[in-house]
């Protein structure tokens, strides 16, 4: 009798959690509805099969690659599906969802996550977090609407920066500890999954290391190059290519991430690199991609506004510095944003 | 590994299955292996230190015990007058062994936890006196639980010396007593008389203990995830940028930190005691509704009870009863009278207790200040007790009446909030700065509260959760057993309560994006 009771109790609990998971899975991709990582999530609102290349990875991706700059010059459609400190579990689950609406020819994968260390317990937590929606989206109780109790999704909110994030702060290069070059076993197991997934969808998977003075080392470079060569995949290390990055003016945090200056250089080089080495289609003047033209206009406006603001702000800098520092500190604490 | 990690939630059911399938003789072995696995996860190679401590305490315990037996044999057929001499000789030898062992254990603890602090003091002295010496020191990572099992070793050996217990000859049993995984990280500090017998019973799991244990664990998760973790961001912001906030916000920050600390620590204790209960082991309680205490000394019989009891039994009493202090009491009694006379020696012992208590929490001035803060209030309470009693009688105030009790609790809470603020502040100076700012500018600003990294919904959850916590504590204080009360309800109602509770913790827990979990605070002490 006791055993039957235990089974029934847990059975009902599991059903409740399943129902909860359906309710809590976001039905839109707007921040106001409690979606985390809005910019990367907005890839789900892109018109079907219009994104030709997806850039997956941590903050290095959205700080370095501006898809609209590349579109302007080459007409390629790229999306930064990157989130702060993206773990390889997240990359995998994000890519799986992207394939539901997009057929990218290329996936560019930032290799940094192969080095990200997790304790055994955090590793488990991440796996659970990615796979059980009610745990992942539990905080959406603050924004639940009636729509959440249906299974209709409305992913309409687009990002004209295509996942890119604009940072104008300049913090010159600081000293960093030499990073450890140890590929993490848990990450490699997920890497195989990603490789299989891209193969299944006939996508070319390309690995890359975007510019980062903090986490790059020759040891890591050699290790990755050898590793991917053995596996038969392309690996592009932008740290070793002549992008013209000056870490004293092009970083927003002393050498960890690029700022907009650096992103312009990296994106320019990246676009040219794609043209020289891969086969992507130029979609400029293609009426099907009219929304990219519109995005480009909005993007330019936004950057212009931001730059004007920055210039105006630099005049007021002294006044607001204290305030900014505090805000930044608050932000750091709250977002807990690593890479 | 924290007691709140998913790994722990996976490990416990697995352990339950293995435990249940094993024979009753193998069960304690499984508990010991699980404990060592747990320590290995948390501390890796440093697990060696608990092994060394186990061997040490086993050896010293048997030595003390053997001497006791030898003494009994030696005095068997001896004249009465000689007996006393022999007894005294053995006692002296045992005393030396005990002191040697205690010094050894404390020295290891000291090496890991306090050397850095004292080196920094030395360096300060050198630089103040312009001596051109600077000692370099790299902070060492301490083995997990060293502050707890060291005290358990001391208590165990002292109890043998005092004749309260006999030494445990079985090394394996002693190993399990020191390493038992639920209490290795944050206590409670268990006495041999509490658990040594139970741990090796190997009784099969039983339905009652398993369900009650799981419920207790759930309650701990509620305190930690819904309250403590939600408070972490605002409290951290207030303590790091205190100069930017009004006094009212700082005051709420003190309350917030006290609640955070209480929920984190007592929540951990719920998980610890609940886990032990699953395996039919009753651990001593570490909390007893501390905020309903009458005064500061009463508070310390309700907050971190096992630590207070350790200091009481192994420092306060032995010191007060030692020959020099007894002699002193005699003198002061003659001069100051029967009431104030013994207070002098009491104060000396109390000072040592609170000095050790402060230092136990960590090597730092804030912790020493925290110890002295409580010493000061507890001493003032005993000094003024008679005055208060007389005053109340004259004014016809009933000290057991409700309004007076509420007044007492209110006063106590203010003391505690301020004390915990010093405990949390990075320096004593910042503690005073925060206190003075609170007193100078005691205004509340609603907008300021919404800029503390949590939104109005979070505040709503906090208020409701704290009310639930208050009501449950109140019921416990009135000796109403909430778990029993729920268990006696019809199944539909009972299960609905359980489901609502589980889902509420999952949904309203402050975990994931946008929150910053509290690190296990007491695991660092």
Automatic annotation (TrEMBL), chain A:
**Location of region: Disordered:** 309-339
Q: Which UniProt keywords apply?
A: Membrane, Transmembrane, Transmembrane helix
Q: What is this protein called?
A: SGNH/GDSL hydrolase family protein
What residue intervals traverse the membrane? 6-24
Specify the taxonomic lineage: Bacteria, Bacillati, Bacillota, Erysipelotrichia, Erysipelotrichales
From TrEMBL, chain B:
Kindly give the membrane topology term recorded for this protein.
Multi-pass membrane protein
Q: Does the keyword Acyltransferase apply?
A: yes
* UniProt-listed GO biological process terms: alginic acid biosynthetic process
Keywords associated with the record: Acyltransferase, Cell membrane, Membrane, Transferase, Transmembrane, Transmembrane helix
Gene Ontology cellular-component annotations: plasma membrane
Query: In which compartments does the protein localize?
Result: Cell membrane
Q: List, alphabetically, the Pfam families matched.
A: MBOAT
GO MF term set:
acyltransferase activity
Q: What stretches pass through the bilayer?
A: 36-61, 97-121, 141-162, 174-193, 242-263, 340-360, 372-392, 412-437, 457-475, 496-518
Which family does the similarity line name? Answer: Belongs to the membrane-bound acyltransferase family.
Q: State the protein's name.
A: MBOAT family protein
- Record the organism: Sharpea porci
Organism lineage reads as: Bacteria, Bacillati, Bacillota, Erysipelotrichia, Erysipelotrichales
């Amino acid at each position: 009798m006791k055993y039957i009771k235990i089974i029934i109790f847990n059975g009902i609990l599991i059903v409740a959690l399943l129902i909860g998971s359906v309710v809590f899975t976001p039905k839109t991709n707007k921040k106001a509805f409690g979606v985390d990582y809005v910019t990367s999530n907005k890839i789900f609102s892109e018109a079907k099969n219009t994104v030709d290349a997806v850039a997956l990875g941590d903050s290095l991706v959205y700080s370095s690659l501006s898809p609209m700059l590349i579109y302007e010059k080459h007409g390629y459609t790229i999306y930064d599906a990157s989130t702060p400190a993206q773990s390889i579990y997240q990359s995998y689950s994000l890519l799986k969802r992207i394939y539901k609406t997009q057929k990218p020819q290329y996936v560019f994968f930032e290799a940094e996550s192969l080095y990200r260390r997790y304790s055994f317990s955090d590793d488990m937590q991440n796996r659970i977090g990615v796979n059980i929606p009610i745990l992942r989206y539990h905080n959406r109780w603050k924004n639940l609407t009636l729509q959440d109790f249906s299974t209709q999704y409305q992913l309409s909110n687009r990002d004209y920066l295509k996942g890119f994030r604009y940072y104008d702060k300049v913090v010159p290069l600081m000293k960093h500890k030499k990073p450890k070059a140890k590929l993490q076993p848990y990450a490699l197991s997920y890497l195989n999954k990603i490789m299989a997934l891209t193969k299944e969808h006939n996508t070319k998977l390309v690995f890359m290391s975007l510019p980062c003075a903090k986490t790059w080392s020759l040891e890591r470079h050699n290790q990755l190059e050898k590793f991917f060569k053995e596996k038969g995949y392309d690996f592009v290390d932008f740290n070793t290519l002549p992008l013209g990055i000056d870490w004293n003016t092009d970083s927003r945090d002393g050498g960890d991430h690029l700022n907009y200056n650096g992103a312009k250089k990296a994106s320019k080089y990246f676009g040219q690199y794609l043209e020289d080495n891969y086969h992507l289609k130029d979609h400029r003047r293609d009426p099907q991609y009219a929304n990219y033209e519109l995005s480009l206009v909005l993007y330019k406006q936004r950057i212009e506004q931001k730059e004007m603001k920055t210039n105006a702000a630099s005049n007021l800098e002294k006044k607001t510095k204290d305030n900014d520092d505090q805000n930044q500190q608050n932000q750091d604490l709250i977002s807990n944003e690593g890479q | 590994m924290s007691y709140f990690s998913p790994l722990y939630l996976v490990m416990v059911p697995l352990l339950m299955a293995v435990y249940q399938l094993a024979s009753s003789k193998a069960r304690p072995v499984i508990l010991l292996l699980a404990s060592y696995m747990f320590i290995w996860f948390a501390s890796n190679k440093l697990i060696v230190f608990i092994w060394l401590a186990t061997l040490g305490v086993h050896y010293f315990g048997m030595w003390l015990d053997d001497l006791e037996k030898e003494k009994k044999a030696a005095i068997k057929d001896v004249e009465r007058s000689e007996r006393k001499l022999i007894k005294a000789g053995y006692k002296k030898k045992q005393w030396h062994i005990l002191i040697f062992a205690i010094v050894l254990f404390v020295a290891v603890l000291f090496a890991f936890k306090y050397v850095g602090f004292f080196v920094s003091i030395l360096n300060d002295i050198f630089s103040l006196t312009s001596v051109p010496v600077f000692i370099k020191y790299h902070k060492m990572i301490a083995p997990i639980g060293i502050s707890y099992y060291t005290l358990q070793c001391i208590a165990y050996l002292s109890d043998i010396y005092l004749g309260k217990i006999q030494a445990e000859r079985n090394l394996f049993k002693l190993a399990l007593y020191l390493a038992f995984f639920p209490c290795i990280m944050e206590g409670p500090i268990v006495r041999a008389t509490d658990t040594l017998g139970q741990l090796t019973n190997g009784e099969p799991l039983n339905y009652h203990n398993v369900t009650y244990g799981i419920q207790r664990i759930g309650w701990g998760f509620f305190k930690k995830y819904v309250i403590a973790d939600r408070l972490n961001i605002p409290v951290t912001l207030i303590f790091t940028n205190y100069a930017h906030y009004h006094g009212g916000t700082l005051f709420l920050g003190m309350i917030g930190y006290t609640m955070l600390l209480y929920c984190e620590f007592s929540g951990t204790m719920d998980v610890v005691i609940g886990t032990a209960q699953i395996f039919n082991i009753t651990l001593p309680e570490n909390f007893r509704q501390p905020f309903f205490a009458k005064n500061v000394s009463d508070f310390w019989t309700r907050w971190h009870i096992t630590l207070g009891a350790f200091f009481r039994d192994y420092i306060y009493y032995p010191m007060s009863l030692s020959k020099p202090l007894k002699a002193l009491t005699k003198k002061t009694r003659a001069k100051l009278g029967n009431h104030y006379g013994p207070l002098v020696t009491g104060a000396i012992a109390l000072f040592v207790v609170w000095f050790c208590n402060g230092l136990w929490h960590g090597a730092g001035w804030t912790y020493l200040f925290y110890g002295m803060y409580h010493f000061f209030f507890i001493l003032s309470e005993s000094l003024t007790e008679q005055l208060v009693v007389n005053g109340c009688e004259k004014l016809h105030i009933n000290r057991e009446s409700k309004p007076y009790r509420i007044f007492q609790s209110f006063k106590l809470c203010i003391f505690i909030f301020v004390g915990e603020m010093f405990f949390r502040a990075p320096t004593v100076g910042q503690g005073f700065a925060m206190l003075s700012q609170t007193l100078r500018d005691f205004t509340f600003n609603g907008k300021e509260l919404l800029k503390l990294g949590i939104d109005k919904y979070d505040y709503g959850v906090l208020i409701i959760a704290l009310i639930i916590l208050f009501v449950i504590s109140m019921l416990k204080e009135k000796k109403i057993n909430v778990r029993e009360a729920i268990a006696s309800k019809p199944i539909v109602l009972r299960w609905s309560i359980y489901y609502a509770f589980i889902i509420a913790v999952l949904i309203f827990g402050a975990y994931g994006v946008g929150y910053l979990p509290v690190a296990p605070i007491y695991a660092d002490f």
